[in-house]
Amino acid sequence: NHNKQCKKTKLRRTTSQTAVHTHRCKRSIITKRSKTWSLSKMEHLLQNASITTTHHRLLVLILLLTACCSIPVTSAAQGTDLGGGVITRTPVSDQSRIAYDLRQMFESLPDDGNRAKNVYMAGFYSALYDSFGNALPNKRSIRSFSTEAGNGKFSSEPTFLFHMAGLSNNFDPNTYDLHYTYADDFVMSALQDSDSGTLAAEAARALNLWMYCAHELWQSLDQCTMASRADINNDVLGLTDNAKGAHSIDEFIAYWIGEGQTAGSSTQGYALYALTQQAGQLFNTLNPTGEAKANTNIKLLYENKARTALAASDTCTEESDTVEQLWHINNSLLSQMYVPLLQMLIHNMVQGDVKRVRMYALAVVPQFAQCRPSVYRRLKSALLEKDYDGSKRNDILTDLQSLYSCLGISCKDIGAYQTDVLGACGDPPVSFPMAEYIPSSPVREYAELDLDIWNMKLLLNYGEKAYPMAKYLYLHGKNSYIPADENDADAEKVHRTLHSLAESDFRKKAIPYYEAFVEYFNDNFYSDRIILDSLGRKGRWGDNNADFVGGGTFDQRYEVISTILQYQVVHLYLLAEIEDAVEDCIKQDVTDNDGNLHSWDEVAALVIGSLEGAGQGGSKDFRDGQFIWSLANKMSVDFGSAEDGFALVNSEIEDLLYAGKGMIQSYDCADFTKVVTRLRNIMLIPLIQSVIKYATKMEGLSYESNADAVAKGEAFTLCALPIIYHYDKDGAKVIEMNMLSPLTRSRFNPKLKGTQMTYVEEGPQAVADAFWKTMRALELPSRFVGSLDGADPSKLGEIAGSASNMKLSLATFSTSVAISVLGSLYLFFG
Question: Which residue of 52, 312, 453, 660 could cross-link 626, Cys pair, CB 3.0 to 4.6 Å?
Fold first, then answer.
């Protein structure tokens, strides 16, 4: 095939050297930026090479002819035809030929491991070029797709960073570098294993090539972002910079499909498309045309979404939304890319193939680090830290299936394994509980805002390089959706974003607290400004802050951003949802919300979140949750305010959620309003505890301290202080003077500058005492708050408030709970 475009080469021996005479190729160009590479250069190379045998001369000639003549003739205008209806905008035939390296590895193994190793390490078929379009002597290699990670090539990309978080010790970014070359390490080990068959080739595809495809997606976003900057001259962006992202998107699809692939075939092809076909056959997820649904979805996302976004006249400009589109397209593509890896993992679990279970687990299980941490740890233990135990297969499958939605897929995407060995996979029902609260509307995707926070924390934890992607996640969202209009067949889901919560006018419903926050910060968008300033390394926690020596650190910015997101942005929006539920009760329309979600279910979603699990009290691993429920459990350990392993305040919150559900269902709005008031008040307890806890940690620390506790303590203070200000201005001033630096105080309250030199100069007990009047006004029970050594907020007196203080009749309360429980049980069990 390589000789079809060239005439035969004639060799003749001379007395002094071997001269090569050859006709030129019919088209003697390498179509990389239309630069020519004539065959006379081949002659020059051969004449000046130290070649001593005919065999060596022929080998070199074959390699050079391959470089010149085997590349399909394309131009930047016509792109590359990859088959199956996929034609790229830019020429990527060189990239697609990496599939032939995989073919060479598959054909060489297991008999010729050295040949497979040489192709893997040095490459063979996929040509490389310099920035001027001239062919380089070395080739693109599958190994480089992994080893380039050691040079920081992927260090800003979410997919790779989630993988590193999953492989690391307890999500510790300081250990990420130990795992950068996880793919190459596995392949090289498999190449040394004579009993592993074609495992090394399979791993090169599922590990190296898969992650490099993900890299190309994020590369397209990076380059589109660069092109959208006003200070960048787009005219100088050539193919080496993958102009406006188009070329990277084309590279992605070229690597996924690969050259030589027949549409719908699992045998005529060697890249990831072929793997997906194999997996689709096993799980009955083929379309009527014979193409795996995941492959069809990937092609459609590429053709109809990515290419369309990048073909617009204003693409990747400051005025366009191309970056946002690519962000969502990339995440949708990645969801489909997970499908074959999970299918092959399950298949090999059923087959009991321990080596391939380990390989496919290495390919996909670390990605679950972005999901519920406790479940991920179980999967990591069962599939990566020890050999697969088939007796635990059902438990492992249950854990895997519980996390599908976190990766943007469902049981339907994975399909049913075509044997009677496995039971049918089922997605969680609408009524799937959140810490025993049973919703009656599909509110889970609302609750999955906690996943956005967890994903942001994983990215921020890595440091500066991941800030841009963390910002995209904040601005554009990832896991939470506003339900589409059921009456509009063409309607698409819209992402619910943390940024939208921080800016929404809906917050104004949180009476009286919205006004309290705006008055205190003198800014309608107080949370958004703190978050964006910190992501931009500006403001109080910027690292170039002239007011403080050294400014803020990465760890401090992590604490500030995550705390403000969890307990200021989400919490105030939760308070607005509570007041909105009262309005809906009065209107007698509990589903007057986006997607007809139940008003009280929305409240429960933002109190508990999706990560707590279904059991009583929520997750036993307090690191799972990201909302106020989890904070209450964490603080109860420190303050001795737990019962049966969970926070006392959460027990009352759960009672109030059930009581409120019954009352709003029956439109008993008078008593419902009392429940709402009580719920709003007691949710302040975890914030009070958090400020007091950090007062004990910050005492005596300099305002210039780089301690993480300083940043977290200030952030918690800013979450609670405007509310305290509303009830007790004198107490708020004490808290402010002790817990906030002069820069923070003067920014939000210019009158309060003070003369102190360190934090908490009056001592933690003074801070705890400053909450007393507010606790009494809101009837916050002392036993719910608890105490710390040296900081007891109840020292000034006991408060015995409880649910009975709402002056609800016991009969009304009990009836409401019964109505809610019975209704929920009916929905849950049908």
Answer: 453
